[in-house]
Structures are given as structure tokens and as C-alpha cells.
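subagent[fold] <- orchestrator: predict structure for attached chain, return C-alpha cells only, no commentary.
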Amino acid sequence: MRKAFTLLEVMVSIGIVGLLIPAIFATVFVIVQQQLRIMALYEIKRQGDSISNYIQNQLKNEMRTIHLVPVGSTAIDTNNEVCNAVNTQSNVNYFGDKNGGNNVIGNKINYYIDGNKRLVSDLTFVGGVSTKSTILSSNRVEISGLSLSCERVTLFSQPVITVSFTVTYKTNSTKDRVSLVYQTRTQLRDKQ
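subagent[fold] -> orchestrator:
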């Protein structure tokens, strides 16, 4: 009775193991890559939804007027209100509430992308006394393409604000960059 393997049996065994191990590692590598991509998509979806909901709630619940400040100007008054006529459409710089009294802007809010590609909300209180900045996105994502615009269709309707932006997962690899484009529309409440 023999107690050893033949050379052929050993070669076949080594060949099978030599084929299976790289296949297993390749499969595990692909699964890990897909999981990382899923986590990136989850993060940008979470961040984008959070930003979209925050802006939508803030505009709907607190802001009443829409303004465009001329380039280079810091003037804040009701003379530069936009989307207050029928069939008008405009880009937007900031929003105001009526906490200042009759036809006087109280608090104002504007949204912008800072140097770290994060979305920031600046709330300036009545009289420009102080500003409260809120960073709406984390360092894990980059925000780009922020666009705020308004449109008013009829005389008795309130302006509809369109907010759009792109959320991209931060990574060094250009191959693994994942982006989602967000666009939301909300209607301002009555000015009264």
C-alpha cells in the first residue's frame, strides 16, 4: 500500500490552489470596492438630503422676501427685492424676513460655498449686529454648483424658490468620485 502522493497529484493540487487563491482575493477586492462606493453614495445622499431639508424648512418657515444685491454693494433694503412682480424670474443673493417692521428687512440669510467647499448658511440679525454661521455639510463631501433662483407666475401666488447644488464625495481617486445633483423647489409664505 502506498503512503505518498504521486508527482502528478501534487502538481494538480498546487495548480488548483494556485487558481483558486487569486480568484478568491479578486472577488474579495471587488466586494470591498463596491462596499466603499456604497458607503460614499450613502454619505452624499445623507448630506444632500440634510442640506436640502434644512434650506427648504428655513425658507418656508422663516423667510418672506427675496433680494439681489448688486455686485460690490453691501446695501440691504427693500428696493432690491426680486420676484415681486408677475412672471418674473431672477437669481437670488439673500432672503429676508419682516421682523424689522413695515417694509423693513429684519433678519437676512444667505447661502454660499466656503473655501473648503462646504455649504454655509449665514444669518444676519436685525441691524446687522451679529451673524450666525451654520456649516451645512461635513468635510467628507464637497459642494459645488450652488444656484438659488426664484420665479413668480401669477399676481396672487407667492414666489417659488429653486435651490440646486451638487454633492461630491471627497476622495483622492478620480475613478471613485461619486456625485449627486440636488434640486428642490419651495414656495415662500405670505409676506404678512
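orchestrator: received. Logging for downstream: The first strand starts at residue 65 and ends at 67. The first helix runs from residue 7 to 62.
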